[in-house]
Request: fold
Amino acid sequence: MDVGLADIYMDGYAFTWFKSLGTDRAVEEKLDRAMANDSWFDKFQNAKLECLTTTSSDHYPLWLDCAPQSAPSCGLRRFRFENVWLVEHEFGPFVSQRWQGYGTRPLVNKLKQCVVDLSKWSMNAIQNTRQEIRKTQRKLEAVRSHVDTSNVSYFNMLRHRLDKLLIKDDIFWKQRAKTFRYREGDLNTKFFHAAANT
Reply:
């Protein structure tokens, strides 16, 4: 039966599923797709479909961006301790070194200065995590089309690295979201980013 649906063009990597990469039996297929009718195409003329990378599945997720928007600028925020700091290797030494540098100031002044220092450090650490995620994703995308026995360990190392970075990012957004649904196991989606930013 013809229901008037057509494939939404997918940018970049053409395959959405793989098996046995890095071996003689390697197989890649386009199993997953996004489809729409003419009225949808008229409404979302700038829509973009991408095949993303993944670390824990043999299916690559698809990302359909119907209307890209720039993130709104945020004003000043009050300080809050970030759980993701606890998985950063440099967090403990950074705090210890800064605290010793405050000398004999009153405790309240030390805490205020610590808030300033941690806020600056956190912005860099979170920004660096996001840059590392993008960089590792680009490397994975570059290598995934020609994985063989010579580079399968590099491919797996990149997947493992991306997995760790995504866990860090997930910890960050989990604390931000503060919704029951997220705590019950929903994925890190645009809905939760929007809820967290509001």
